[in-house]
Amino acid sequence: MIESLKQQQDEGFQINQEEVVKEYERRYANQSSLTIKILSIAGGLLAGIAFIGFLFMFGIADSGVALIVLGAILVGISLLICNTVDQLIIDTAAIAGFVIGLFLIAAGMVINDVNEDTICFWLMIASATSFLFSKNAILIFISLLAFSGSILELIMSNRPHEMIHLFIAANVVSLAYWTLNEGKIITKGKRFCEVYDPVRIGLIFSLVVSLGITMTTNIFMRPIGFVWISSLAIIPVLLYLVKRILDIIQVTELKEKAVAYVISLLVLLATFFAPAISGALVIMLLCFLVNYKTGFVVGVLAFIYFTCQYYYDLNVTLLTKSILMLASGVLFVLFYLLTNKKLENNEKI
Amino acid sequence: MFNPEREDIQIICKHSNWSKDEVSKTLNEKVYNNAPAWRKFLHILLITLGIAFTVAGIIFFFAYNWQNLHKYAKFGIVEAVIIAITLAVLLSKFPLMVKNVLLTGAAITVGAMFAVFGQVYHTGANAYDFFLAWTVFITLWAVVSNFPPLWLLYLVLLNTTIFLYGEQVAPWSDDVTLLLAFIVNLVCLLLFMVIPTNSSIIVPKWFRNILVLWTAGVATTAMCNTIFDYQAGEGTVFLVPLTVAVYVAGIIYGLKNKSGFYLGTIAFSVIIIITALLLKYSIGAGMLLFIFFFIVGSVTLVIRQLIQLQKTIRHEN
Question: Cα separation of B287 and B279, whole Å?
Fold first, then answer.
């Protein structure tokens, strides 16, 4: 494979074949499947719960300082083990240690009556540091989630809650940038290659969670106003994606392009006050574009859930809901029939 | 030919000075979805959204329970919708995929019909007989459709019926309900597994995996329920040997077919069951510490075996 690649490239192309072969051998020995990844994460979490239970039963949990110190040590050891022993089988232990560590740091500060904002701040620092130093994909993923989780908690425990729209906007834009510029990012250096995959899935999960918060305003008694602000960030991203898709399926005529944009705008306006739905749509389209299956499935599930939740919460009579849905259903079927011919014609060419 | 996957590109990038334009070009050509894939995707997306919203609209319309609408009008509307969709499936020239989506829509509308029936004659919308009737009357469609999403709907209805029956009517305790659910799901799973790979019915991997996970989940819940329930009833006598037998068979099947998924799922279920046993014995500090080491150790061991298995698969290829 390398040979055929070499032939295609110009003369300046250099490749360290020895390292490539080594890397293949290393990955070959540690080849992970989704089953193994999920098994190590689930096992790590269960073990973590058992260990935390032990600490509380044993009475160590009475001293806040002891918990913080223990937590920091655990986080450090987990990172160290992961970076020095590059073996898949220690993942479970390392993940358990890492999650327990972060939890203990937070729990220790709660016991010592540290203010909530300060706790979030320290967790942000701890997870950011782990993010920078970890070489393990799962730990990078978890620290990214812990980082964005702390920011979200910081926003939700303070006012105004509307700050969450800034978070969502930043998250959507960075996810789009990260996904669409894959070639550019992974050629920036070894470190970017390492973090590329975990950061992408981490951004997706963090986006789903933050979008979910905008939908569950009544549950936490923390009403969020101006929900549409998030849409202001999501809609341009979606329109840009529509442009990319139209380029791919080679829609060139002005009239057809106009129809496509009008349809997209109609759909987007309908979701203007439900950014969670359009946000999930962004995830779906982005992941389909770059053929990233895990992310695509997450996007589809989020889309279904948010749509159902939206109609469930909608404060109108069932009859109005019914008319709204029937109308959009018929509209989609019409779009289908309208585009059907065009799409099929293209297939024949 | 140079036909890399995403992982190959990443590895080469890491150890070469491959230019960003070339990498982007390769990704675009070899990894990303192309025009035909997009056309197919947009097709399916639009028709699925269309049918889903229309059917949801119909359901909400009847949920509104319009008092002025005569009951015959209600039945008339919902049945007309079902007939119209079914006729579209039988007589139209739509592609097979679209027909399948339509048939799934019809199957959901049958539920709306029985809900209207319950509304008019006050049989209670939550009772198990509503789901039982719904399940029974879409069985034929589920069988002939060859469409996994419709199978999934069918299985959800089947399970709902069983659990509601156990909760509302059944003269027995929870362990029998769980045992029944375990057996029913197991039979479905076996049916899907004996379908030969060269037949016209294609069972996608994701569908079978969901069924495996769900069946193992029910078995695990049933076992944990038996462990913690002090008055374990008549279900236990059958449950324990059945679970053991099925798990042993599953492990043999997994080893034979080199399926890490089966082995991983069963192993994790067994770990949870053993943990439940340990917790039943004691919930003191010492036991929790022991459980911590047990979980880390056993999961690590399982993962090691799975990696070993993958290596042998690679060697054979």
Answer: 8
Of A13, A19, A50, the CB nearest to B295: A50
- Picking from A19, A100, A195, A248 by the largest number of B CB atoms within 10 A of its own CB, the best residue to mutate is A248
pLDDT band at A10 (very low <50, low <70, confident <90, very high): low
Task: Provide the chain A residues 105-164 that lie in CB contact (below 8 A) with chain B.
Answer: none
Task: Say yes or no for a CB contact (<8 Å) between B35 and A250.
Answer: yes
Query: Is residue A209 scored above 70 in pLDDT?
Result: yes
Mean per-residue pLDDT, A257-272: 84
Q: At which residue do the structure tokens 């080491």 appear? A: B293
Cβ atoms of A211 and A275 within 8 Å: the answer is: yes
Q: How far apart are CA B173 and CA B236, in angstroms?
A: 11
Three-state SS across chain A?
CHHHHHHHCCCCCCECHHHHHHHHHHHHHCCCCHHHHHHHHHHHHHHHHHHHHHHHHHCHHHCHHHHHHHHHHHHHHHHHHHHHCCCHHHHHHHHHHHHHHHHHHHHHHHHCCCCHHHHHHHHHHHHHHHHHHCCCHHHHHHHHHHHHHHHHHHHHHCCCCCHHHHHHHHHHHHHHHHHHCHHHHHCCCHHHHHHHHHHHHHHHHHHHHHHHHHHCCCCCCCCCCCCHHHHHHHHHHHHHHHHHHHHHCCCCCHHHHHHHHHHHHHHHHHCCCCHHHHHHHHHHHHHHHCCCHHHHHHHHHHHHHHHHHHHHHCCCCHHHHHHHHHHHHHHHHHHHHHHHHHHHHHHHC
Q: Cα A277 vs. chain centroid, distance in angstroms?
A: 15
Contact: A1, B2; criterion CB under 8 Å? yes
